[in-house]
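A.,

Following up on our hallway conversation. Structure tokens first:
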């Protein structure tokens, strides 16, 4: 083909090339389908001023402790308005779900209205879970309202994925697995719970010992012993009476399997057992029968002088009777017989100023000198 002919052919093609650029061909494969956004749980948004006020009102009146029916009704109404205005405010939905749940207990236990309020609460949590919100709270809250152990475990697993340091989710998940006959997996999860949620009080320590007892019954004595030893390490600085009560609550087979713990319990037992007279004295004081309570406490000293509370009560009752000298006398008697230096100084620091003024100078100076070094 001659050059002039080639030039003419290219010129003729120009309109077609321009058309191809202006209107591109569709791709050979269709693009992936885009899922429509869910309307139940939009991305979390900051709270508006009205929403903040509604949440604060719910915290004021809808808590299980200090529930105020009138305030809670008003809070629920405002939370509903805030949700209608902007459903993406996650804290508002969570507050509304909790408020509805607490509101349900104002109805009779067998009433439809209670069931309706509770179902409404669970529906809110379920919508948030179905919307796959990246916040652990709705998953956990729905889990504690879920009876099916399999579904509960699924919710708890998602909870700890989103918040590995959740204070209760690992523990709850371990119990759920144990109930489903998975003791080894339950133990692995409970180890994580012990790592992220160290014991803060006796109730938490008792919960850990309860799990250890369950592991004994599940034929996992070594894992149970590890829970026990962890608890003992965590509470080693607690007062002696607290440790005594804690070990008294442990599964007997669990304690018997660990000679060291068994010896500790044998040493501690007198400090929280054989307290019949002390128990009677507490009841008598509540009835205003102070003289009889003092008599029972003196009998307690004769029967078992170990429990510290006996001397604490005697000091208080003698002061109540206007007898600081006797309060000082019984307190000094306790301090002289207390073998543990730390326990002795803890007791000394909690003595009433009225008792200290009535105490003899020699005992007072010796205690101050000894306890100033600790």
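Then the amino acids I'd put at each of the 374 positions:
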């Amino acid at each position: 083909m001659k050059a002039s002919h080639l030039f003419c052919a290219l010129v003729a093609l120009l309109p077609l090339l321009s058309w191809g650029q202006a209107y591109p061909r569709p791709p050979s494969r269709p693009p992936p389908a885009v899922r429509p956004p869910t309307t139940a749980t939009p991305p979390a948004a900051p709270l508006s001023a009205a929403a903040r006020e509604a949440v604060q009102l719910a915290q004021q009146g809808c808590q299980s402790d200090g529930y105020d029916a009138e305030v809670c009704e008003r809070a629920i109404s405002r939370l509903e308005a805030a949700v209608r205005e902007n459903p993406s405010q996650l804290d508002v939905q969570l507050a509304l779900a909790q408020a509805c749940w607490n509101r349900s207990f104002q109805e009779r236990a067998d009433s439809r209205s209670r069931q309706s309020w509770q179902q409404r609460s669970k529906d809110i949590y379920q919508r948030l879970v179905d919307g796959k919100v990246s916040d652990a709270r709705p998953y956990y809250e729905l889990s504690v309202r879920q009876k099916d152990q399999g579904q509960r475990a699924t919710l708890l697993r998602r909870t700890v994925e989103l918040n590995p340091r959740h204070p209760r989710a690992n523990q709850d998940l371990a119990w759920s697995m144990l109930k489903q006959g998975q003791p080894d997996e339950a133990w692995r999860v409970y180890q994580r719970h012990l790592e992220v949620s160290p014991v803060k009080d006796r109730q938490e320590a008792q919960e850990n010992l309860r799990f250890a007892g369950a592991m004994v019954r599940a034929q996992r004595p070594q894992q149970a012993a590890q829970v026990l030893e962890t608890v003992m390490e965590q509470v080693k600085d607690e007062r002696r009476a607290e440790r005594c009560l804690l070990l008294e609550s442990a599964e007997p087979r669990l304690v018997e399997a660990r000679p060291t713990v068994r010896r500790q319990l044998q040493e501690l037992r007198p400090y929280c057992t054989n307290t019949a007279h002390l128990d009677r004295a507490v009841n008598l004081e509540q009835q205003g029968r102070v003289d009889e309570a003092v008599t029972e406490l003196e009998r307690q000293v004769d029967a078992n002088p170990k429990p510290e509370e006996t001397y604490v009560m005697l000091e208080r009752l003698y002061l109540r009777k206007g007898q600081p000298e006797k309060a000082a006398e019984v307190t000094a008697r306790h301090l002289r017989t207390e073998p543990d230096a730390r326990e002795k100084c803890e007791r000394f620091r909690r003595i009433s100023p009225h008792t200290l003024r009535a105490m003899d100078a020699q005992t007072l100076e010796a205690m101050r000198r000894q306890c100033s070094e600790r």
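The CA atoms of residues 214 and 224 lie 8 Å apart. Curious whether your intuition agrees with the design.

B.
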